[in-house]
Structures are given as C-alpha cells and as structure tokens.
Amino acid sequence: MSIAFDHSYARDLPGTYLRVAPDPAPAPRLLALNTPLAAELGLDITEAEATAWFSGAALPPGADPIAQAYAGHQFGGFSPQLGDGRAHLLGEVIAPGGRRFDIQLKGSGRTPFSRGGDGKAAVGPMLREFLISEFMAAMGVPTTRALAVVATGEEIWRETKLPGAVLARVAASHLRVGTFQFFAARGETAKVRALADHAIARHYPDLAGAETPYLALFDAVAARQARLIAEWMGLGFIHGVMNTDNMAISGETIDYGPCAFMEAYAPGTVFSSIDHQGRYAYANQPLILGWNLARLAETLLPLFDPVPDRAVEIANDRLAGIADRYRAEWVGVMRRKLGLVGEEPGDAALADDLMAAMEGADWTLTFRRLADEAALRLLVPDFSRMEAWLPRWRARAGDGAEGRIARANPAVIPRNHRVEDALSAATAGDLAPFHALLAAIRQPFVEAEPFILPAPTGFGPYVTFCGT
Ligand code: AMP
Ligand code: MG
User: Fold this and answer.
1) What are phi and psi of 428, to 5 degrees?
2) pLDDT tens digit string along 171-196?
3) With 80 as the cut, is the pLDDT of residue 467 above it?
4) Runs of H (alpha helix) within 321-346
5) Are strands 77-79 and 100-106 parallel, antiparallel or unpaired?
6) Is 218 in a helix, a strand, or coil?
7) Do 259 and 132 contact (CB within 8 A), yes or no?
8) 272 — phi, psi (to 5°)?
9) Residue having the nearest C-alpha atom to atom 11 of ligand 1
10) How many CB atoms are closer than 10 A to CB 4?
11) What does the alpha-carbon distance between residue 250 and residue 270 come to, in Å, rounded to a whole number?
C-alpha cells in the first residue's frame, strides 16, 4: 500500500524546520507493529513495508522528511535551540474520521539540531515508549501513539553497547510549548502568529472565529493540559521530564523518557536519575503545569495585546486561574475513581482525606480495592485513618460503587518491574515478555493475575533514565 501523506506544517510554516533525511538502517527487523492503530489511521501496510519505512531503510512514497525547530526550558533553564535532534517528521496522514496525524521517526539519525548527540535510540527505550503510550491510550488519556518499533541492526553506544531501534510515532501534532518559545525568543512575532494560526486550525478549529483567537487558544491549551495532568495524577503517572519542549499544544502526553508509575503512594516520588531536586516529582506536576503555561503565555504576549503592559495584565489574569482549573479537573478525576455520582460540596475534602489515609499504599490497587475491606487492610500500612475514612466514602458513594470503581480504575498498569523484565528480555532478543505485557496493559480493567501485583520487595529503589 502507500501512505497518502500531506505536509501542512511544512507548507504553512516555512522557516520553522530543516529538510533532512533519516539514516538508512542497515539491517532492519520489525519488533512491534501496532495493527489496531494502523487500522484506525486507515493504513493498510505490510510488515515488509513497515520494516523498511519505519526504520529509515527506505522512504515511503510521498514522505518529505523534516526536522522541526524548537527551544525549551529544561529543568527551569532556557535552551534557545533544541529541535528534533534524532527525529524526522515524514509527513501527516488524515485518518478515516478526518483527523490529521503526524508520522514521525524517532532515533532515525542525526540532524542539524543534534548538538553532541548521535541521533539514535536503543531498543529498550523505544519499546518502553510503545508500552506506556499504549497503556495511556487504553485508559483514554490523550497521548501520542507508537505505530512501530524496528530494530536497525546497528549497535549504539550508551553506557554499554546496545541494539539500536527506530520508533514510528503518531501524534496529533508535534507542536510544543518550546516551538513557540523558539521563535518568540528570537523576536519573530510573525512566526509565532503563524504557529498559533496553525495550532488553531489543527487542534482548536472552533476558535478560528473567536473575537480574541490567541487568548482563546491559550485558554484552550491550558484547559487541555490541566485535564491531562489531572489524568496523569489519577494514574500515578510521573512524566519525569516536564520541560517546556515536552509539553504538547494538542494536550497529548508526549516524550516518554524517564516516566514511570508510582507504586506506594508518596507525593514526593521521583524516578528520573537526573531529577536531583525533585522538580518533576509526582506532587509537583500540577505546579509545573502552571509554570509551563506561563512560559507559553509569554510567547503569545504580542498577540494578546500590542500594548505590552496590557498584554502582561491579560496573561497574569489567565495564569491566576490555572490552579483552580486544575483543581476542578483533579476533583473530577477523583470523583470518577471513587465511583461518586453527581457532584457534592464535600467531594474535594473526601478525595483530599483519602490522600492522607493512603500514604504508603499501592496507588493503583488501593482504588481498585476500595470496596473490599479485607484486601485494603493488606494494602494500607496504617489502616486507622483509612478505617475512619471508609464509612464516609461508603455513605457518599452509595449503591453500585463497586462496579463503578472497577470500570474507572485499572487492575493492570505497566508495573516497573514488569516493564524492566520485558525490556531486558527484548534487548537480549526475546520479545515474548514484551508482547505478553503489551496484551495485558491493552486491557487494563481485566484482572490478569501475573501483571497486577506491585514489585516484590527487593526491587528498587527504581531509577529511570532519559534513554538518549
Ligand atoms: P528529550 O530529553 O528526549 O526530550 O530531548 C531533548 C533534546 O535532546 C531534543 O532536542 C532531542 O532531539 C535531543 N536529543 C535527545 N537524544 C538525542 C540523541 N541521541 N541525539 C541527538 N539529539 C538528541
Ligand atoms: Mg523531548
């Protein structure tokens, strides 16, 4: 088959990218192909085509690969030039429902944005992105998807020699907060405006006719990102590297690097080896949401109002509302997780008090087993607070709570020890554990025994790496 590529980003936004071809993989071997996703996209591709096209070994007809420019605040410090240092956007496809998606290769070789990097990726981290993004999708959390992972047949050097791989990533777009920052930092207001127009047309078409479309764009991005972070918090997901270049304007989760799911609930949980200060710790993620949105607002100031002081006032007014907006989203997520029907004024306090009562207990299973007191007693280290909380919850949740809880809270998540086992086996050439885990996390509400339990004692402390 062929892929009917379009190139709206390249067409609309000259001067925001460089044309550069992926490296040809010497001996590509298909490790994983996301057939359900291919079907959703209306792509009828053979395994041979996937192997060649999604490894860089051959370009699919109609592809016009580019590397996109972007900047970003990394751990709070501004880098004026990052960009796709190991990624190539092949083009866009329009799915049967009419939605437009980027198809991008990641780990496909050096570009002018590579700085010191080799432009490559290893099998482990690319399969990791496949797994975790598939779980997010299964849970209905907005996310980029993985279409395929192809081993390149090359060895790459990290701490040791590792097999190389390319990930084919599907995204609503790759517009990042950092994309806006790249041009704003250079004073290129016309390009920021063009990016904003492109973002509106692509992700928020209803706003095109708004009286103040750029302000409406900011509000819409803030709303989607607030909802996204609330969903992450509900799953115990720690992104690990919420730099502004890793925050998508579409509101999708993007750039699965050192991310991982918290097991025992502790607000300060950090997995990433480089996050020494805990900037991106679990409980900090909502604060970073606001910080990152402030950076986005800064790039849009000239579009908010030509008078700088007025623009700043407008932006500050908007930013002041983000904490409340996030809080409302979080309470909404918690209502769902607690099986509450409707809204009552005490709901926020009920959720807050559960946080205090469940400290140290497995995040995922505590919600899943709320209606099963015997199981909860085994999960919660200090049961006295939980014992006081449970009758309040039962009174509020009422009949049918057990069923609602089972439909809202996953039984299976990508447990860290399972992910590590699957990836080390895959790196050594055995893909069976990866595919077994993938099948389980694609049906997260099914109680698939071997994948439910937390890591055995002795596993950890768990540390993740950026996978660069
Ligand atoms: P990340 O931490 O993966 O979000 O990447 C931050 C920046 O580093 C982006 O500009 C990436 O393109 C770049 N980068 C990450 N890994 C590599 C690599 N192996 N080679 C070249 N550039 C890289
Ligand atoms: Mg990134």
Assistant:
1) -85, 0
2) 999 999 999 999 999 999 999 999 99
3) no
4) 322-337
5) unpaired
6) helix
7) yes
8) -70, 130
9) 85
10) 13
11) 26
Q: What percent of the chain has pLDDT over 90?
A: 97
Ligand 1 contact, 86 CB (< 6 A): yes
417-439 pLDDT tens trace: 999 999 999 999 999 999 999 99
Beta-strand runs (E) in 172-204:
none
Q: Is the pLDDT of residue 460 over 90?
A: no
Is residue 84 part of the annotated active site? The answer reads no
Q: Which residues contact 374 (CB under 8 A, 6 or more apart)?
A: none
Check if 275 has its Cβ closer than 6 Å to any atom of ligand 1.
Answer: no
Centre a 10 Å sphere on the Cβ of residue 350 and count the other Cβ atoms it contains.
20
- Please determine, for residue 392, whether its predicted confidence score (pLDDT) is greater than 90: yes
Q: The dihedral of CA 168, 142, 78, 262: what is its sign?
A: negative
Beta bridge partners of 117: none
| 119 touches ligand 1 (CB under 6 Å) | yes
Catalytic residue among 245, 255, 275, 362: 245
- Pairing state of beta strands 87-94 and 17-19? unpaired
Is the model's pLDDT at 1 over the cut of 80? no
Task: Pull the structure tokens for residue 41.
Answer: 């996209």
Q: Where are the beta strands (DSSP E) in 69-193?
A: 72-74, 77-79, 87-94, 100-106, 145-157, 161-171
In testing the pocket of ligand 1, which one of 86, 123, 279 has its CB within 8 Å of the most ligand atoms?
Answer: 86
One-letter amino acid identity for 220?
Answer: A
The dihedral region occupied by 42, where left means phi > 0, alpha psi between -120 and 50, and beta the remainder, is left
